[in-house]
Amino acid sequence: MRLILLGAPGAGKGTQANYIREKFGIPQISTGDMLRAAVKAGTPLGLEAKAIMDAGGLVRDDIIIGLVKERISQDDCGNGFLFDGFPRTIPQAEAMIAAGVDIDYVVEIDVPDAAIVERMAGRRVHLASGRTYHVAFNPPKAAGKDDVTGEELVQRDDDKEETVKKRLSVYHEQTAVLVGFYGKLAESGSAKAPKYVKIDGTRAVETVRDEVLKALGA
Q1: From the first residue on, what is the mean pLDDT of each consecutive set of 10 residues in the chain (218 residues)?
Q2: For a FRET experiment, which of 40, 45, 118, 211 has its CA 20 to 30 Å from that of 137?
Q3: Which residue in 40, 60, 141, 156 is the catalytic one?
Q4: pTM of the predicted protein model
Q5: Is 2 noted as a catalytic residue in this protein?
């Protein structure tokens, strides 16, 4: 099972990725993890990427694709892999096809921006324990206080409404175009085209999970 998971930040991709990973016994691969591993291992591509990052530059797509090919040739990818946060752009998607990296499925977790803002901006955290609450969906017993200790809950900077909206804006500018790209590819009927699956991510986590696994033939 070789697949790409698409969706805006806060759509619930991470949760669904865990279910997919466990069901099919495949690793979840992110470009960040891949870059760090290659740099740590001191591979030629890793060293080249490190030099670019140390200079404050963006790692070129050809290096990223090279790292992807290296990573998916490793033993733990024998049953497949799940790309999370990659590809981010159409040039990366096209480069992956040109490099012969075949994908079986592209799964989009679709959640409207307004629902994502409500989900993320309502989160509150007890930093010492990691316990999380939501002002609307899972409120603490006393407003703004941890249920166990009574200590103050905080809103992480990443969860602030303006930050969430900024991240969504970047997603729509750079990555949302991949939805159309892979949708058209799936419709083309090409033997190499992945199947495209769009899942409504606004429902209960378990409902989304069951529909994703069913769509993947599990």
Answers
A1: 92 91 93 86 90 86 89 92 89 89 93 95 94 94 96 93 92 88 90 91 94 92
A2: 211
A3: 156
A4: 0.83
A5: no
